[in-house]
Design a protein that fits this description.
- The complex is a heterodimer of chains A (about 250) and B (about 350).
- Chain A has about 250 residues and is mostly beta strands.
- Chain A has one domain (about 30-250).
- In chain A, about 15% of the residues lie in helices and about 40% in strands.
- In chain A, strands 3, 4, 5, 6, 9, 10, 11, 12, 13 and 16 form a 10-stranded mixed sheet that branches. In chain A, strands 1, 2, 7, 15 and 17 form a 5-stranded mixed sheet that branches.
- In chain A, a hairpin with a 2-residue loop joins strand 1 (about 25-40) and strand 2 (about 40).
- The model of chain A is unreliable at about 10-20 (pLDDT under 50).
- By secondary structure, chain B is mostly helical.
- Chain B has 2 domains: about 60-195, Cytochrome c-like domain (Cytochrome Bc1 Complex, Chain D, domain 2, Orthogonal Bundle); about 200-335, Cytochrome Bc1 Complex, Chain D, domain 2 (Orthogonal Bundle).
- Helix content of chain B is about 35%, strand content about 0%.
- Chain B has a two-stranded antiparallel sheet with strand order 1-2.
- The longest helix of chain B has 22 residues, at about 1-25.
- Classes of the chains: A mainly beta (about 250), B mainly alpha (about 350).
- At the A-B interface, helix 1 of A face helix 1, helix 4, helix 5 and helix 7 of B.
Amino acid sequence: MRPALILLLLFVSLTAANRLHRPDAPKGFLELQFHHFIGKKILHSDSTYLNHFNEPFTVTKFRYYVSNIVVSNSATGKQYRLPDTYFLVNEAEPASKSIRVVVPAGGYDTISFLLGVDSLRNTSGAQTGALDPLNDMFWTWNTGYVMAKLEGSSPLSKLPHHLIEYHIGGYKKPHAVQQLIALKVPAKAVQVKSSGMAKVAIHADLDKWFYAKHPLKIADQPACTTPGALAVKYAENYAQLFFIHSIKQP
Amino acid sequence: MKARAVILVLIVAMFGGSWLMQSFVPDNEVRSYAADPLKQEIPYGFPPPVYTFKNNPLTQQGFNLGRRLFYEGRLSKDNYIACASCHQQHGAFSDFEHLLSHGDNNQFTLRNAPPLFNLAWHKELHLDGGINHIEVQPLAPITASNEMASGIDSIIAKLSADTSYTRMFKAAFGDATITSQRILKALAQFTGSLTSANSKYDQMRLGKVQFTDMEYKGYQIFRARCASCHTEPLLTDFSYRNIGLTVDTFLNDLGRMRITGLPEDSLKFKVPSLRNVARTNPYMHDGRYWGLAKAINHFAGFNAADLRTDSLIRNGAPLEKTDVYLVISFLHTLTDSSFLKDKRLVAPEFNGNIHQ
């Protein structure tokens, strides 16, 4: 074995040992709770709502990926990026709407995440966990994840069963739909402590799905199920769905 | 010296291990620590492969499981249609003598089943390039209602109930859990290992054999007239091209445009490799031409009026009739009979026995 290689190994082992022995910064739990609304009304799968254009509709399925979570403090510049974590928020599964993460203790005034799955994971072959194709958020004929899915019905839809079906996906430019969303914590920063759990309530107003940036009436567009310019419009709308409603300190 | 190195490695393992675990997120599947590693075969003169089994270490047990799954009818709704139903070894894993293949409930597929070999060199799969990774490709035929009409959840249920399968998953991945990821990775171990590079053409390149006069003349014409798309040594450049085939109004298959949505990609299909081409009759994406002569005559008597047709074809002079037959004699040198008869690739229930 060459001396250079030995030196390299020694360096790596010392660096590793050093890291191991460095006293760990205290960490704490942070819970992101997602709540879904239409306007001011809580979303229920058996209710009919009116959107911005006064179009009646129901929502039977609402799911989206949350990934690449970053918590940061704009005052101190401190930032923590969660390593490689993917969550599927599913309206039908209450547990999926609370995302618990461990971050270094401290105050954070901004929480960012990618709504969707980054291009790298879209091109890395068979995945598991939240990214398992079993979750029905994966296109088999044109590889890629459905980043957000909204299904339901509306009398204004001319599709079979008056369905409305929005499967928004596509990771490739110019039709990439993954959206980086940065949410400001209102008033005071959320304090993550080594004991207890800080909770952040994130509200999503689904009405904005149809109008936040681009007006997209159900009557005109009852479905969008392929990557393309229309999917990008929905994505630019859903980028504005979320805001932090409140925080709860332990 | 050697002992010191070993000690150092151990130190790295001891102290670095926990730290490394935190920095790199493993690919979740537990590996069997007793599986026998296999080496990926990279034939002489081939470029580096796209798929290198980096996150799917190739082992004998993984390959064996992948092979069994490839021949497994229970991957389909009716428990009879396997991958191998439309990808038969004697047809270089194409659907021998079928224009289109037969799927669930006597339905037809959209396209002519492509042969399967050297897939580790493909950046994208399918004739429209819609699949970006070899591991996720099987999901397309498995879930297509006119192909295997199944779903991963029902496959997991069927295989989990069969102890001969849970044993194989344990041997390949370290425990008996069956997941979509493991099914797909095992299949990729088999399909990614289908390497065909031992035809007469390959042996000629290695200087082991010589072409006949006709084969050689055909090769020269091929190099001058065909090789800019059917690039050596893989005999495809993996591009998508419109070769001027009129659209079938029943199938209405627009090819690459279905994936990109770009009008300029209308009627473009992936340039197929010509390896084993004598075994993949009929030809073109919808199998419209029977026989090599018919297929090559498409280029020989070409009507260049349609401006969407690839410029290499529009601007090329038509092939002479004699040239067509010389090219055919060259194309026959691309048949890799050792691949077509490779016992390692045969359905496991035949125990390596092959009849042809």
